[in-house]
Amino acid sequence: MKISLTRRYRFAASHRLHTAKLSEEENKRVYGKCSNPYGHGHNYALEVTMTGPVDSATGMIANLAELDPFVQREVIEPFDQKFLNEEIPEFRAQVATTENVSREIFRRLKSFPSARLERVRIEETSKNSFEIEDEVDEVRG
Amino acid sequence: MIRITRKVEFSAAHFYHNPNFSAEENRRVFGKCNNPHGHGHNYVLEVTIAGEPDPATGMVLDLKELKEILQREVMERMDHRHLNYEVPELAGQIPTCENIAAVIWKLLDPKIKTGKLDRVRLYESPDLFADCTADASNGSGART
């Protein structure tokens, strides 16, 4: 039996799907209304899944007293109420699709010291969600 | 392979306290969850069974049977109970979401005769849940 712990957070941000590598017409064709020039926003829900041994002294995989401020510092503060394309440096060079946002958030949370980040899942809307898992697991199958 | 999931809800009280920690350490590690008077949650439990549907019934496992197992093994043990004092399976453990989910897995696993217990997901609140799954690699899972 394997145990994981998942914590859900929220942030609201705007983005625009647009790349300088494509012409304006191509951007419009590929990204549709998501490419509108002034951007648009979402209420993102972020699920962070941690795994690892349950510490017998605390009964915990990860203490929320450590995880919450870590996620707050690494993701919520920089992302919440922001325009991702302009205010998160990593999205100056890559399109702020939620695939790329998931990957960036995974990268930021991977250094959590006391448990292993297993998965990041983002709901962009109630209809669209995106997941990224630790690649070690993918290799293991 | 098909997965079927049944959901039940129970309400219970708990608090976090390790007798090997000093009072100050307990407060530092467990924060307000250390309040000795306890506090409660509406737990939501999702139990997933995996298997092939029986050609005669079209069912992996009769959900009515699963409902009865959940009633007997989980609801009667934990619903409207204080998890620190009234659930012997949790004795000596901090009743965190992780530990409760593991206890539920161990209670249910031997009772599932048709299909296989695939996942136990226990929500302590809509923003926090623990998952127990069969560990194929037997690697970095929980200490048992």
SSE layout:
The complex is a heterodimer of chains A (141) and B (144).
Chain A: E1 2-15, H1 24-31, E2 40-51, H2 64-79, E3 82-83, H3 84-87, H4 90-93, H5 98-109, E4 116-123, E5 129-133, H6 135-140
Parallel strand pairs in A: 1-3
Antiparallel strand pairs in A: 1-2, 2-4, 4-5
Chain B: E1 2-14, H1 23-30, E2 39-51, H2 63-78, E3 81-82, H3 97-108, E4 116-125, E5 128-133
Parallel strand pairs in B: 1-3
Antiparallel strand pairs in B: 1-2, 2-4, 4-5
Summarize the structure in words.
- The complex is a heterodimer of chains A (141) and B (144).
- Chain A is built from 6 helices and 5 strands; from the N terminus they run βαβαβαααββα.
- Chain A is an alpha+beta fold and 141 residues long.
- Chain A has helices at 24-31, 64-79, 84-87, 90-93, 98-109, 135-140; strands at residues 2-15, 40-51, 82-83, 116-123, 129-133.
- Chain A has a 5-stranded mixed beta sheet.
- Chain A is elongated and about 60 Å long.
- Chain B has 144 residues and is of the alpha+beta class.
- In chain B, strands 3-1-2-4-5 form a 5-stranded mixed beta sheet.
- Residues 138-144 of chain B have low confidence and may be disordered.
- At the A-B interface, β1 of A face α3 and β5 of B.
- β1 (2-15) of chain A pairs antiparallel with β5 (128-133) of chain B, so a sheet runs across the interface.
